[in-house]
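Re: export button greyed out
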Amino acid sequence: MPMNTFLHLLIPLLRGALVTAEITAGAIALCAVAASLAALARLSGIAPVAWLARIYIEIFRGTSAMIQLFWVFYVLPFFHVSLSPMFSAILVMGLNGGAYGAEIIRGAVVAVPRGQLDAAVAINLPLFSRIGRVIIPQALPRIVPPMANLFIDILKNSALAGLVTVSDLTFQAQVLRESTLANGEVYGLAMLIYFALAMVISLLMRLLERRIRFPVGSRA
Amino acid sequence: MPLDSTSEPAVELRNVSKRFGQLTVLDRLSLTVACGERLFIIGPSGSGKSTVLRIIMTLERPDEGEVWINGRNLYPSQPPGLRRRTDQRHLRTIRRDVGMVFQQFNLFDHMRVINNVMEGPMRSLGLPRPEAERRARELLERVGLADKSRAWPAQLSGGQKQRVAIARALAMQPKIMLFDEITSALDPEIAAEVLKLVRELAGQLSMTMLFVTHQMHFARTMADRIIFFDGGHIIEQGPPEAVLDQPKEKRTQDFLASLTEVS
Amino acid sequence: MTWHWAFAWHVLPTLLQGPVVTVEATVAGMFLALLIGLLWAGMVLSGRRMLVWPARMIVEFIRNTPLLIQLFFLYYVFPEFHLQMPALLTGIIALGVNYSAYTAEVYRTGFQSIPRGQRDVAVALSLPPHRAFLDVILPQAIIPMIPAMGNNLVAMFKDTPLLSTITVGEMMQKALVIGDTTFRYLEPMTMVGVLFLVVSLISALGISRCERFTRRRS
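Workaround output, generated via the alternate export path:
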């Protein structure tokens, strides 16, 4: 393929990739918050709060992101809630990811041995220290790797945003296809860009993994 | 060890009951520990010995009865049925005087040894970092692990971990120390070293100490009083010579006999 | 905006035409995914560098790119090679290829988790290789895989709405058409959501029952 055609395809795609990156970043942030809150709610032991979290998790895990997105985009306006397509995408991807993330976090926290909490009480640590200085640091190594996969799933789901008129990478690919009819090249290139973005996320998460690691022997 | 029986008791359990599901682990137990006393609790597994220590350490809350530590009631207003409300702040001020060493060591795996020992003084006692570090180093020196201060718990042997755990507990300068089968997870030679350390520390410090243990020779030399526990009740208690050499109750005799069979 | 039950009931039959297509796509797609996944797993487990590397790279690529783009790629590229495929078939192929990356992983971990001892036993009993595989290894490998494959099946089921973007008339498509023609999106979209939710919950229960069963057997 001649170079200028290649660039002709690449540049609009990269513009779309920027939007995709924005959506993904926003959704990841929302996902982290939602997942933490929902996990906290389920672990709190306060029945109504835990119940609400359970409902949130089941609904968002039981339906697909596309349905959730379309619901927000097509149905909410009739309830006088009009969100911009971009915001709808970030909201849905974030809440969807949050539902899966909540279970990851909850599982990791529950896996921290009871004895660690006992020791924290034995040296009279206040509640926030028990959570922040003992439980969370020991739960993180079991949280970060699955979250890395979850964040990449969010990136992949962001492609749906193009279906509700957001000018993301997928949308730009559609536009280019219609104008250039170079179907294979356009979508192939788009896939490569998504792959590159996924690798960036992977790399960042692996760096994070290294920072929170600590030596573990066999538990006596 | 001179006992101070004139001042108020260090620990007092009044009619304490504790159930786990259908199982009644403690049944209207009453127990008084004098200030500075070295008390040993022995008995078969599942008899509720550890639960007594855990209740004193506020790791478990009794279903009935009262727990008094240094003259203060752990759970003052206990209307029946209203379980949730424990005053955390009140609990923490009392808990400050109690420390515990566990059978499974329970060192914080994500912190180096020195930080394990510093954590309590810094976060609970509010000591500034340099002072906490100084105290930690002194204690590690005392338990013979000064050279391991930068090590991670995973890199230590069982005996070393337990010694760090002891240093960590002592860093809080508690008035009451609880030892829950601290050598049960250790090989015999290592266990002996740890017990030797505890004996030295007991000689230097005058705090109240409660032990749950199977180590009878250790109990014999260290104890002011030994309690034989079974089925959530005190079966027999008294000075070591009385309980170990001339047990009055049949259950005590059977238990002591079974120990010598095993060894 | 209020919910009109009469309308909801009215559109239910139309909506229920969708699930037939949804189920077709899911079943066929899963079948394909199981086959192709076995191919990748075989290549990786063979240990031969010539096979391991390409398989790993293909699986990585599939897993890190969106299903939607893969779907569009196949849909618009097939005609370029003079392959006129019905949309449903293209969708099934896309689902099958995409999920083969995940089934391959299940196969791989499943086979590798069989303790060495089992293979040694087969040797000790002097079983011929194919017998060893069929009677000893395979049954033990398959049972723990079932819950994981079940999860993949449910995930694929939830991805079928994507096929509506290439004009496949599954549930989502039907709901959108109803919405576009009557301007009432609330009932059809919610009902589709509820239908998905119900199926997901039922299958989640089924899978956890499966998991308990497999754990008891091991």
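Residues 175 and 190 of chain C are 9 Å apart (CA to CA). The button fix ships in the next patch.
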